[in-house]
Amino acid sequence: MEQPAMAIDLSENAKDGLYIFLNVRNTLKIENPIQKIKEVADQVFEKSHDKQTQLTAKCEVKLFERKANFYMKSVDSHIKWVLSQSDLPSNWDPCLPEFPGYSQKFQTAYKTILKSDPPKICETLLKAPLEELEDTECVICSYEMDSFEGTLKCENCKRRYHDGCAKKWFKVKSTCPMCNESMLDEEEYPTLS
Length: 193
Known about the structure:
Elements: H1 12-31, H2 33-47, H3 51-84, H4 104-114, E1 151-153, E2 160-162, H5 163-172
Antiparallel strand pairs: 1-2
Helix pairs in contact: 1-3, 2-3, 2-4
């Protein structure tokens, strides 16, 4: 006689995290990214008579496979980790690696040969470029920012700071307080046109 599956007692945060990862795993199973990259690369390989372009297509498959396999293993290990936790902090962030995309070289070859952009693979897993962070706290003074007016944004990490806080910070360091990317006071060092 089969044993009933053991119920896992997870907090709401842990259930939410598990739900995210199970959705990602389901997307990977349904969309089969490794099969898709092979199909896309085969189109380039078959239509091109240039050996270098054919080699680019072959290399793209190998590189994408390696990155996609790493991503899939990461999803599975995150699922196991969440299942081993009874609770997750409310500010927990499911930090997966970036889902692989095409290399610039392959995109150019595809566009040149097939006269269109290559189809997106697992589009829902591709991260849109982040323009603004949801977090609106100035990490220098720890106060919320009500609007973007009177703030300065680091173009690297997208974090915003109050102008006054940033000016004080720049007197000590000319880097972003969060990511250490070089930043300058725009009033003191205006952009040259």
